[in-house]
Amino acid sequence: MSKTSKAKWKAKRTDETRNVERVLREAGFEQVDAYRYNSASIRVRVIDSSFEGLSRVKRDAKVEKVLKTLPPRTQGDIVMLLTFAPSELEDPQKHLRENFMNMEFEDPSPSEL
Amino acid sequence: MAPTTARDFLRAAAQRLDAAKVLYRASFNLDAQYIGGYAIECALKALILSCVSAPELQGILKRISSGAKWHRPEVLLGELRDRGITLPTELAKRMRRFTWTTDLRYETGRADTGETGAVLKTAEMIYHWVRKQFP
Fold it and tell me: Which residues of A touch B104 (CB under 8 A)?
């Protein structure tokens, strides 16, 4: 991960997305990152060792429980939720789609909106 | 023939959805997801075109038909939001689990059946929601 790409998404954080990060961290998730991609989309990434070996559905269910406590408008704007076990981001060849999605999160394509 | 109207895009969405269901029933899960993703793209593009004025149509059509980013639901949803259309929260929740990209075309193997069923359900719900928005 380069410093440049890191800065790119960090610059897209807002008070609303910082609140999403805070709420999820307080719920015990190890790493939580969120930013507003465009007027309709907040992207959320949760990396947690408890996801190891869990299906996507079970991971999402764990996170969704917490997202339900957010204001309805914020909930409606979270249209990207990435849930990774730390090991999945270590071997890009083994987890191609996960790593592609992670790259898009880290270095968001221009939206122009 | 390339679609030029909102109705054309909606028809394309319906056809992609039908094809995805056939693939799913035949256990071609990964391919069903790949084709099903286009149903969502076409449906959202139909909705964008349905709410632009006649003079705007050609310009918007050209814009949403060129460039890889216009395959991405997130970008299409942004365009809709800026035109005053918001995805219902229930659909937004389903979209969170939707990790479709056009790069699926390079993937091989067999995707999870449950995950594929959920992708197609999302595609179907988006398609029906778009249809209801049509004037």
Answer: 97
ipTM over 0.90: no
Q: Which of B113, B124, B29 is nearest to A56 (CA)?
A: B113
Q: How far is A44 from chain B (nearest CA, A)?
A: 9
Find out if CATH 3.90.79.10 is the number for domain A3-106.
Answer: no
Q: Do B103 and A56 touch (CB under 8 A)?
A: no
Beta bridge partners of A107: none
In a domain, B110, yes or no: yes
Q: Which residues of B touch A110 (CB under 8 A)?
A: 69
Average pLDDT of adjacent 10-residue blocks, chain B of 135 residues:
90 95 92 95 96 92 88 92 92 85 81 89 96 86
Q: Which of B95, B107, B118 sits opposite A79 (nearest CB)?
A: B95
Question: Token digits for B6?
Answer: 């909102």
Rounded to an integer, what distance in angstroms lies between the CA atom of residue A28 and that of residue A65? 12
Domain coordinates of chain A in residue numbers? 3-106
Is residue B45 domain-resident? Answer: yes
User: And the tokens for B61?
Assistant: 């059509």
CATH number, domain with residue B129:
1.20.120.330
Residue B104 lies in a domain: yes
